[in-house]
Amino acid sequence: xxxxRKTLKERLQAKEFxxxxxLVPGRGAWExxxxxxxxxxEQAAKGNLVHAVSLTDNPGGHIGIKPEVIGKEIAxxxxxxxxxxxxxxxNRSQLExxxxxxxxxxxxxxxxxxxxxxxxxxxxxxxxxxxxxSTQLLQLITAMKRGLEAPSxxxxxxxxxxxxxxxxxxxxxxxxxxxxxxxxxxxxKIANGAEFIVSQVGYDARKYHELLxxxxxxxxxxxxxxxxxxxxxxxxxxxxxxxFPGCVVTxxxxxxxxxxxxxxxxxAQKRLERAAKLYAVLKRxxxxxxxxxxLDVAYEQVAYIINRGEEYLANWQELIREFVYPQDQGYYLxxxxxxxxxxxxxxxxxxxxxxxxxxxxxxxxxxxxxxxFVPEKNLFPAMRSLSAKIEGTRLEKGFHALEHSLKAxxxxxxxxxxxxxxxxxxxxxxxxxxxxxxxxxxxxxxxGWCEVYPGQKKCxxxxxxxxxxxxxxxxxxxSYQVNPCNWKLKNTSSxxxxxxxxxxxxxxxxxxHPKKKGD
Length: 519
Known about the structure:
Elements: H1 8-13, E1 18-23, H2 32-47, E2 52-55, H3 67-75, E3 80-86, H4 92-105, E4 109-113, H5 134-146, E5 164-169, H6 176-191, E6 196-201, H7 205-217, E7 224-230, H8 233-240, H9 251-260, H10 268-285, E8 289-294, H11 299-312, H12 316-319, E9 334-337, E10 342-347, H13 360-372, H14 380-390, H15 395-411, H16 460-469, H17 494-499, H18 504-508
Parallel strand pairs: 1-2, 1-8, 2-3, 3-4, 4-5, 5-6, 6-7, 7-8
Antiparallel strand pairs: 9-10
Helix pairs in contact: 8-9, 10-11
C-alpha cells in the first residue's frame, strides 16, 4: 500500500490549488495502454506534483476498460483518483449499481458527464442509452450521500455514501443561446450537489474569466478547474473540425500551431510553454485548480507545465494577451475590459445578429397550451374530467392514437408517455435530441448545431431558446429540474397521464387524479 495523502475533498475544503491529470486507460484488460497508464500514475504518485489522476469513461464514444478497475490499482499506490461516470451507456439502474461498487472500492471522487455520442464498434453502432442526464445523475449521487431511500427494498434506507462529485461546463460557446443555456444547466448541477466544476477545453481567456464572473454573480461558492490540454497539431486539427465535441480551437490558433510544428522539435516546446502560461493565467485569475490532459502526455511534460507555470505567475497579466482566440462573431455575457484583456462585470449587449428563428409550430403550440394545459384555466377542467371518464375504457385507445398521430406529425413524438414538450418550448428532447437531454443542452453543440448532426440539425435547446425569445421569456427556459422519463408510461397517452396526475409535469404542477363519483 502507498502512503496516505490528503483526499481531494480535504484539499477542496482547505482551498488548496489542485492539479489533476487526465489519463485514458483504453480498450482491453492487459494491453500496453493499461500498463502505460499505471506507469504514469506511479510516476505522478512519486512526483508529488499531481494531486489526483482523472480516469476517462469511454471517451469519444470509444470502448475502454471500466475506469474503476484501473482506479483501484492507482489508489493502492496512494494517489487520489477521479472516476469519470457518463450517462451514455448505462440506464439508471446500472448507474446506481456502479456507484455502489465505487463506494465499496473506496473510490469516492467522481466526475459526472453526459458522455460523447456512440461511434461504430466491432459489430456496428451500439445503442445509446442516455436514460439519465448529468443533472439527474447528480441528484442520484446526492441522494446516495444522504442515504438512499428505496421503498421497494426490504432495506428502506441504505448507508450514506462518501462521494466527492464534480461536473463539467462548456463556456466556449459562440451563440447567446448556447452560452446562457450552459450556465442555466450549470446552475442545476450545482443545486443537485456538484462540489467542483471542470471547464471544457478552450484557449480564450475572456471565456475562462466569464465563467468566474458567472459564479461570482450567482454567489456559487464552488471550486472551478480550468482545462489545460497539451495541444499538438493533430489534436488542434481535430478540435478545429469538431471531432472532439465541445473542445474549441479557432482557425487563428490552428494556424499558429501549424507554424510551430515547422520547428526542429515539431512545436514541442511551444505547446509546453502555452500550457504553462495558461496554468499561470488560470491560477492567478482565480481558479482553484487545473485539469491537465492531452494525447500521449508524459509525466515529465506535466511536471514542466506545473513548475514553469509557477515561474510565470508574477507576470500572468501580461500573458492574458496570448490567449485572445475569440470565435467568429462569438457571444460573450460580459463587456470587454480593454485594460486587462478580460471582462468588465457589466453585461454585454445582445448580439446584433441572431440567425435562430421562432418556429411556426411553437406559435400554434403556445396557443394550444394556454387553452388546454394551464391548470384550472380555460379548457383544463373539462379535459381533466373527460380524461377521467375515458381512462380504462375502449375510448382510451382511440384517444391515444389521435394524440400520437398529431404529435408525431408536429414534433417527431416517440410516444414516451411522459412528455417533456412543456419543458422545452415544444421541441421534443426524446425525438429530436440524440442524447434525450431534458435539463439543458450537452456540451457538444457548435454554433448552435447538434453535436451528432453538425450543419444538419440545430440543437433542440437552441431552438427552444429562439421560440421563447420573441416573447422575452428565454430566461425562463431551463429554470426548473425535470425528472427522468418514467418508462412505465411508454406507449400510453401523455395527455391522459398529464390530466390524471401520472407524469412528471403533473407532479411538478401538483395535478392529482380527479376523484370519480362514488370514490
